[in-house]
Amino acid sequence: MIFTGPRPRVPVPETSFTSFVLQRAEQDAAKVATVDVTGAHAYTYGELASAVRRAAGGLRARGFGKGEVLAVLSPNVPEYPIAWHAAALAGGAVMVLNPLDTVDELAGHLNEAGARLLVTSPSEVAKAKALATRTKVTEIIVFGQAEGQAAEEAQGVTPFASLLASPLASPLTKEAPPEDPSIDPAQDLVALLHSSGSTGYPKGVMLTHRNMIANVLQTSLVAPVGADEKVLAVPPFHHAFGLIMVMNASLLQGATLVTMERFDPEAYLRAIQEHRITRLYIVPTIAVLLAKSPLVDRYDLSSLRSIVSGGAALDPEIARLAQQRLGCRIGQGYGLTEALVSFMQLDDSPAPGSVGRNAPNIECKIIDVRTGEELGHDQDGEILIRGPHVMKGYLNAEEATREVLEPDGFLHTGDLGHFDEAGELFIVDRIKELIKYKGQQVSPVELEAILLTHPKVADAAVIGVPDEEASEVPKGFVVVKEPATPEEVPATPEEIMAFVAERVAPYKKIRRLEFIDKVPRTPVGKIERRSLKERERAAR
What we know:
Helices cover 29% and strands 25% of the residues. By secondary structure, it is α/β, with parallel strands linked by helices.
């Protein structure tokens, strides 16, 4: 049985992604498109579109075009969409990188994609330079002005402003610089994001121009933002949620993006008050702040009209408390990096715990996890999704792509759920092993591999355990080796957690650890995570 949503299908324009997103730039030329939370740096829509075209010319002067990859390593800043769309307009693809990742992790991503241009911020120049020595990156381009130590580190890099001053750069006109006429929206890549998929290490998710247009179009239909609205851009643009729903859907609809480089509770609440923010995109961690923190009472948040939660499951009670406190509706969406905007609460009274109904153009089916048989209403099974927004595949990973993408276009999500009779989707559990820490994806396989390099660890398993603030935190279950000599100091949980923390990004740290006698495994050696989760539930 194939489930569809209440809204009719809509055509996906056959054009390039940048042309689609910036189609209103000329008519909204005087309106602010992006502004830093401090108010120090801002671009109108006219200035943004002009900068995109000039930067695209600067990239072409460097030989950048179709088949090339530009990487962006930066927190959210007003110039981020300029760099992103300049590369897209020049015909290349953009790989967005998480500044919290380690040099080892980032180098792997850059080498896999073969990126030779890296755009970064002053705060990340040192890391960018370290990456250039280990990758194919030949030029580092830096946003803004570097000061102090950052200015010293910025020696030998290219200021972003000089990219806009290239001889091939040109002002905003309909003719120049022309887009690459050879772009095939259905086949050519425009974005590379990273996801651990259903299992394993992070993989590059390949999204075409058509995929991205479909994603942004669906977002604008199920969670529309008025042209007079202001959006607080806190979800990072390197994440699918921030890149598609926050940055590009807002620009498409003519809203103003107020960017924040990093989340701080008081600064966040102050920004809502001072900028008169009307739309928030949040992860469940922020929902807890809005629902329970006494800080909220110190600020005027009356400008808020609506809130959309994503990145991880939102507790219905937390949503109710936040909605009651703020007096504005909170909706929840569901998707994944491989197919972001798949479901959204469309009406005013969704069922508690539901993630809503299918967005336009989305087909879905539920299958038995053992037999693959299609299931009907109120029957739990794996959720499969099909639509024009579904990724082209994983970068350099044909086997992994075949495992999740069926020949008929349906994508295996790895999530367990069901549809009720009203057509609302309920997520029951995750078949896949991915951990969602404050909206960030954490691969247990990656953490287990690091644990096993500790000299005192004989075996290890990692699962996500519930946490009110973070949604989930990684917890390790470790079998320790017997001391080789009486003088050897036995391992401690703190020692092992610190060992992992030194080797991963902060959001990937193991936050809890328990010693056990044996890691439960199947006859073929796979970790039985479900039994560890049952053990954890019983302990609580």
